[in-house]
Amino acid sequence: MENVFDLSKEGASKIYVKGTMPGVSVGMKKVSLGNKNDILLYDTTGPYTEEKYQINVHKGLPHIKKTWAEERIAKYGSNKTQLWFARQGIITPEMEYVAIRENQGNNDPETMITPEMVRDEIAAGRAILPSNMKHPEAEPMIIGNKFLVKINANIGNSALGSSIEEEVEKALWAIKWGADTVMDLSTGKDIHKTREAILRNTPVPIGTVPMYQALEKVNGRVEDLTWEVYYDTLVEQCEQGVDYFTIHAGILQEHVPAALKRVTGIVSRGGSIMAKWMSINKKENFLYTHFEEICELLKRYDVAFSLGDGLRPGCIADANDEAQFGELKVLGELAEISWKHDVQVIIEGPGHVPMHMIRENMEKQIEWCHGAPFYTLGPLVSDIGAGYDHITSAIGGAMIGWMGTSMLCYVTTKEHLALPNKEDVREGVVTFKLAAHAADLAKGHPGAANRDLEMSKARYDMRWNDQFNLSFDPERARRMHFEMIGSGADHCSMCGPHFCAMKITKSI
């Protein structure tokens, strides 16, 4: 497989920041600037950006969390969740690890994020640290509104195409550009093998929607779906190392009539499957009725819930309706049940929502879900962006991230149209990294503005390489600049040599 992780072209290198606890060594991207400053940036690439690292997809990645998990099991007799430790007042190595990552070199005692802050936010249910003991390859990261807004990249095959190799390549491509987590949403053939290859080679948490594989096991026949088939699928994926599950346990029989009156009905695959199952069987959602059994299973591995919004609005006309908010209230009740079992939980959100209705979503989620982290798909602020829905969704994502959402699910240019390819993944990830960063700036996250400040200084000084290397996509910035101008220029081709405002300002 091609190595796409060379940092030397970006004036950068991979460094490791040591913690105080055994084995805590946090990989960061160090960018060396022309003004002799260095800047540390959050890095999602794992060991892939180490100098001379050889990619071997058959061997997989180092098991950086294995020793920590083994030592805890030996001490406590069984695996415990990060939430359990946090509630006991215990700071784990994973908690120290994410505190170092989040600070990005910020050592100001007044503003820096501490391991104790991480522990406190997890204990309160306001943050999660996805940490399946069976995925030791994943570097610890945190999702919560006091921390950097994270982004997720969806990948996965369908019945119409994409191989295992292509999906692994897409996962690595996504983390190259900054995806904090990856969801494997495969619905085609070889789901288990595809997921196994992704897990063994990806240094970020992996999420899935177990319903997709459960339905494949009964040949796509909703009427043949059972709790037993679904539970067996959960066990299989827990054992493989999946870090969080989207589980559509909040859609109930009472919500379906309102959803069917909508312009676009039910647009969530998982939500539509459960609505159909309830309609056929005239029974309540088995994910809801068996929820505590699911909690007991997830607790054993420290797999987190991503409680699915099966009734998210699929168009502007359906936003903030009775069906959506009815389900959201149930998700808040389920969050409290999961906490009772020491299981970590985040809440999924919309969807298609116009800008003036976004704040209501955030406020109701905080109130009804008791501060659990919110994870939203955009929201898309318009329905007419076909081919450009990465933009309609990034607008909403930046807004709701500023208001308190903890993680944004990226949307690509292919949304509503087709399965994304590598370049679609790249554009989707970079677009959403910008949306998340804009939210971090608005929230006042410690260290978020430093990158912008260094970019502004580089721009004024006409340090072109620094401008490229501080961007989220150095390759694209560099290519665009040199399409019309040579190296060493003290101006860009937009203004030319005589109309550069900064150049004129310097002469005053």
Account of the protein in words:
- The chain has 508 residues and is α/β, with parallel strands linked by helices.
- The protein is built from 20 helices and 13 strands.
- It has helices spanning 66-76, 82-87, 93-103, 115-123, 164-176, 191-201, 210-217, 227-240, 256-260, 269-281, 286-289, 291-301, 322-340, 358-368, 389-403, 422-443, 448-460, 464-470, 474-482, 501-506; strands at 12-18, 25-32, 38-41, 127-128, 143-144, 150-155, 181-184, 206-208, 244-247, 304-307, 345-349, 374-377, 407-409.
- Strands 6-7-8-9-10-11-12-13 form an eight-stranded parallel β-barrel, surrounded by six helices. A three-stranded antiparallel beta sheet has the order 1-2-3. Strands 4-5 form a two-stranded antiparallel sheet.
- The chain is globular.
- The mean pLDDT is 95.
Shape: globular
Structural class: alpha/beta
How far apart lie the N and C ends?
54 Å
Strand content: 5-15%
Features of the shown structure:
single chain, 508 residues, alpha/beta, eight-stranded parallel beta barrel, three-stranded antiparallel β-sheet, 13 strands, 11% strand
Task: Explain briefly what this protein structure is.
The protein is an alpha/beta fold.
How would you summarize the topology of this molecule?
Elements: E1 12-18, E2 25-32, E3 38-41, H1 66-76, H2 82-87, H3 93-103, H4 115-123, E4 127-128, E5 143-144, E6 150-155, H5 164-176, E7 181-184, H6 191-201, E8 206-208, H7 210-217, H8 227-240, E9 244-247, H9 256-260, H10 269-281, H11 286-289, H12 291-301, E10 304-307, H13 322-340, E11 345-349, H14 358-368, E12 374-377, H15 389-403, E13 407-409, H16 422-443, H17 448-460, H18 464-470, H19 474-482, H20 501-506
